[in-house]
Amino acid sequence: MSKRTYTQYCITFSLLGLMMCLLFLWNINSGSVHLTVGEIGKILLGQTDEGTAYHIVWDIRLPRILSAVMLGGALSVSGFLLQTFFANPIAGPFVLGISSGARLMVSLVMILLLGRGISISSGGMILAAFAGAMISMGFILLISGRVKKMSMLVICGVMISYICSAVTDFVITFADDANIVNLHNWSMGSFSGMSWDNVRVMAAVISVSLLLVFWMAKPISAYQLGEVYAQNMGVNILRFRVALILLSSILSASVTAFAGPVSFVGIAVPHIVKRMLGTARPLVVIPGCFMGGAVFCLFCDLIARTVFAPTELSISSVTAVFGAPVVIYMMVKNKKGMQ
């Protein structure tokens, strides 16, 4: 590694770390109740454990912030895995319809159970979202074997996303139970309402998934140079593809299960991170994508909560505003590669 490359890595990760810390503190301090830096420090250090401010920070804001960090990072890494799998810079859970498939399955399961007065656990939501993500991924894989143009694959993914979204909206609209109708807010995407139980479950699932992704860094690096090269390096292509699909689906399903569909993070952030780092090496890009996704979602969640307070915007609306221009730029720049 050259000195210039090492310096670029250090600058990028330092910048991402600084932005994450600043946004972390900014998110804690933002809301209807204003807190000073001193008050936040005492609460976080455990020097006070009572009062309204304490409960606002520990029971409302911290779970939401940690959820945005973990889910944003997971979605970005999932997008990187899908872009590697399809060798397409605009492949992502939202564009390919994977998030919408997960959203549809979670909605159906919640409607079925809530309609009978049965609650669903966090683990159950993740399993339902994973099943929906795998169904959508199955359709994408079938289509990818029949179309040669990557642009057609993206279009088909968008159509699958529209179909899943339409079915979800139809089911939610005609639901009778008031609790089921409230699913509409979740289906728009939001980090609100997170609890420490949710944080623990998502932390366990995402941590294990990320460790497996790191373990696959070398095969991913070989696969980026082509299937033939990867086979010559001893990579079992079939097992590698299955593992890549499963990991990307678990990560995107975790996001959908807890926050609903979140758009464009899985496409825009990996592209930005790779440009900042100047490389596509998995060992460097994977942690960069996680930190970049965390920063992006913290920033977007801050805007969603504060710009039109007390009205809160859906997180997907905000991420689309900042992520869509990046995707448009990528499509224009890579139009020849999409043919």
TrEMBL record:
Membrane topology, as annotated: Multi-pass membrane protein
UniProt entry keywords in alphabetical sequence: Cell membrane, Membrane, Transmembrane, Transmembrane helix, Transport
Record has Chaperone as a keyword: no
Compartments where found: Cell membrane
InterPro entries: ABC_BtuC-like, ABC_transptr_permease_BtuC
Major location category of this protein: membrane
Keyword Coiled coil: no
TM region positions: 6-26, 65-86, 92-114, 126-144, 150-175, 196-217, 237-270, 282-307, 313-332
Matches recorded under SUPFAM superfamilies: ABC transporter involved in vitamin B12 uptake, BtuC
Assigned protein family: Belongs to the binding-protein-dependent transport system permease family. FecCD subfamily.
Protein name, per record: Iron ABC transporter permease
Source organism of this protein record: Enterocloster hominis
